[in-house]
Write a structure and sequence with these properties.
Helices cover 85% and strands 0% of the residues. With 139 residues, it is mostly helical. The chain has a domain of 90 residues.
Amino acid sequence: MKRSYKALLRGLLGLLLLGLIVALTDPARVLAQLRQAQPGWLLVGLLAAMASNIVSALRWRALARWLGAEVGWLDACRWYFQAMGLNALLPGAVVGGDVYRAMALRRAGQDTAAAGWSVVLDRASGLWMLCAIGGLGAA
């Protein structure tokens, strides 16, 4: 199958999943809630979430490179955002996205051990960062 057909199929599958999620929710209620929200705060929240994920993707990239797995920053960001989407959709929360990131590195030709350890170390460093932020907040 040609690459353009695969991309089209993936795009259509994404739209289908989005339609399924909308169908399973109460769209009128969701729209009513969104109308009550302040657009400025929604935009700030979206930008903060995107910035957080980009920083996390770059942290993961740095760990992967430290382990000898070369990955470009655009690929790291793309795979990280895709993994976050999987975490939101799949049961079991974080495991699906972590496996996806390791598999993406492996499919890109990187060493299996480096791909796996980069994700494990990324999770551990993220946990310690949350502990540090929590400690600062408690202080």
